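Protocol step 4 of 6: structure prediction from sequence.
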Amino acid sequence: MEAWRFILSWSYTVFHALQDFLACLRRSNAKIEVVVMDMGKVFILWRKENHPSAQIVFEHFHIIKLMNETQDLVRRRIAAKLDSGEGTAVLKNQRFTRLRNVADLTSEARACLSKIKQTFQELADVEALREYLLFGSKCFSLNEKNNEIEEVV
C-alpha cells in the first residue's frame, strides 16, 4: 500500500512539474520537434497530450538499464531450466561478469564470458545486442504505431 501511495504521489508531482514546464514553453513560443525523456508513462502521456507531433527520443541510460534487466531475465530463465552439470557450472556466480563492459574485465572474467557465449546461444545473442546498444547507437525513439523502440540514425 505504501509503494502505491509513493508512485501516485510521484506521478502527481511529476505531472505538475511538467505542467509548469509547459506554461514556460507556451510563453516562449518555442516549436518543439523532439522531446528527450526517460521511459516513464507520465512523460510519454504528457508529450502525447501537449506536443503530439514531437518525436520522442529516450535517454541512453534507460535503454541500457532495460537491456541489462532483459539480459538478467534471460539468464534466470536459462538457469531455471538447467540440471546440475556443466551448464550450471558455467553460469554460476557470473551474473555481474555479463553486466560489466568487456573492456573492463580481467582475462579470467573474459574467458568465463566467452565460455558462457559458447554454451548458451541465447545469452550470446542478448550480449551482442547489449554491446551494440552500449557502443553503437546512442539515440532511440518510440514508434507509436507499433509501440516499439527504434534506433535514430
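Step 5 (inspection) to follow. Residues 1-10 have pLDDT under 50 and may be disordered.
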